[in-house]
Amino acid sequence: xxxxxxxxxxxxxxxxxxxxxxxxxxxxxxxxxxxxxxxxxxxxxxxxxxxxxxxxxxxxxxxxxxxxxxxxxxxxxxxxxxxxxxxxxxxxxxxxxxxxxxxxxxxxxxxxxxxxxxxxxxxxxxxxxxxxxxxxxxxxxxxxxxxxxxxxxxxxxxxxxxxxxxxxxxxxxxxxxxxxxxxxxxxxxxxxxxxxxxx
Length: 199
What we know:
With about 200 residues, the chain is α/β, with parallel strands linked by helices.
């Protein structure tokens, strides 16, 4: 069931949760995968751009998790999976607000995991590296085709596994975190980046 929702708008979060519970009776798994980025040097970053990034990447994630956790608590537990980024550990310039928001996601994951463990709610995060997604490719879409290909190829050469990751490789990790195979794992951030952060 698809429910159109802007996760960065607080007034839309509870109606989303209510519709899901009305349809399915409970919520077992939440994947916080909404995200945005605005490129601008830090000295020129506008408040509007800052709020856009923070509201969607961090504030919305926290308060949607809160609303869902209340449902999970009443139904014996569940799993929350947050999507962070390797930018949480190494600043991405000129999108520093994105890096700051994703560092916040890592800490939010840890805080929620500690507080909600007593309710059998596990909270973990995934920190993707270069993955072939719309958000990742958006910064290259404005370039001429040949230049975009060269830049993407340059990124791939810096990845020890010598390629850009695919979305299914993130989804597979999400399935692991959502399953009982990870039943003793909470508060962790799994980096999936082909080894690029090692460099």
